[in-house]
Write a structure and sequence with these properties.
This protein has about 290 residues and is mostly helical. Helices cover about 75% and strands about 0% of the residues. α1 runs antiparallel to α3 and α10 runs antiparallel to α11. The longest helix has about 35 residues. The protein is extended, with a radius of gyration of 31 Å.
């Protein structure tokens, strides 16, 4: 996990710097525009001076609409800054959690002096703790938090350029849409073709449960329709209650390999790979005998 954590820390640091530069530019839009307010007040003052010189009634001069106590903020500015700040927060949370996980892994790998039996027992004890307390799952969730941060930033960037210039916004929106399409496509394709390497283990499990919930809702709807037609018991016997298939990635892959002759084909590929290894000549006669 150390290389993954180091990569996340570097990316989160660089990405936070990029977001901060945009926030510095856009945060001023949440404050009153004092230069515009001063210009409005100066115009009103000039009108009052002209009215005094022309013997015009002061009440005839329209009052300025400046209200410093209730300065309104444009909705676009609120959305843009809110998305940028949420993106920055998620990036900083990713960096913080990455540092914590790095310290956990350092504590796991630092085994004190002792005999071989004691070191082996301490190592296994700590490994069982990592598995029990879901440290691998936490490490797998860190890139997802960074993905969410990047998604919020791209949405905010699209809104930011839509305010500046519509033509530029279409470029950002197109790139963002393509990125989201590729991302969600890479997440959903392994659900249909398990051999596809575009796998994120944590998202694979979550989507598997989501598909199960969707199938359960469809089953309940069809069961309700069957009951209204007086055929509910027959429907339950025929269709049965939808059960959750192998949720973990490892179990799903093993289930796929057990189907048909895939296990034999993969075994043949393994033997062919062993034969191709020039650094292991002892494997060649064994594989040839097979």
């Amino acid at each position: 996990f150390k290389e993954t954590i180091d990569s996340l820390l570097v990316f989160a640091a660089l990405f936070s710097g990029v977001i901060t530069s945009f926030i510095i530019t856009t945060i001023s839009s949440l404050q009153p525009d004092y230069s515009q307010i001063a210009a409005i007040l100066l115009v009103e003052q000039v009108q009052l001076l002209r009215a005094a010189g022309n013997s015009t009634a002061i009440n005839a001069i329209p009052k300025s609409s400046v209200d410093l106590g209730n300065a309104s903020v444009d909705t676009h500015d609120l959305w843009i800054n809110g998305l940028f700040l949420a993106s920055l927060s998620l990036a900083l949370v990713t960096a913080l959690l990455s540092v914590l996980v790095k310290q956990w892994l350092q504590a796991y790998s630092s085994i004190s002096a002792g005999n071989a039996k004691q070191r082996a027992m301490i190592r296994q004890f700590r490994y069982d703790g990592l598995v029990k307390w879901k440290v691998p799952e936490i490490v797998g969730a860190l890139p997802l938090i960074l993905h969410m941060s990047l998604a919020l930033f791209l949405i905010g960037l699209s809104l930011y350029f839509s305010v500046l210039h519509s033509s530029l916004s279409w470029i950002v929106v197109t790139v963002t849409s393509l990125a989201f399409t590729c991302y969600f496509g890479s997440v959903l394709i392994p659900q249909l073709w398990i051999e596809c390497p575009y796998k994120i283990p944590l998202l694979f499990i979550l989507i598997k449960h989501g598909v199960h919930v969707f199938e359960l809702l469809i089953w309940l709807f069809r069961c309700g329709v069957a009951k209204s037609l007086g055929d509910g018991e027959h429907f339950k016997k025929e269709q049965g209650y939808p059960s959750l298939s192998k949720a973990s990635l490892k179990d799903a892959e093993l289930e796929h390999l057990d189907a048909g002759d895939r296990m034999h084909l993969v075994s043949a590929d393994i033997l062919a790979w062993l034969v191709s290894l020039e650094s292991n000549p002892s494997a060649k006669p064994v594989c040839s005998a097979k």
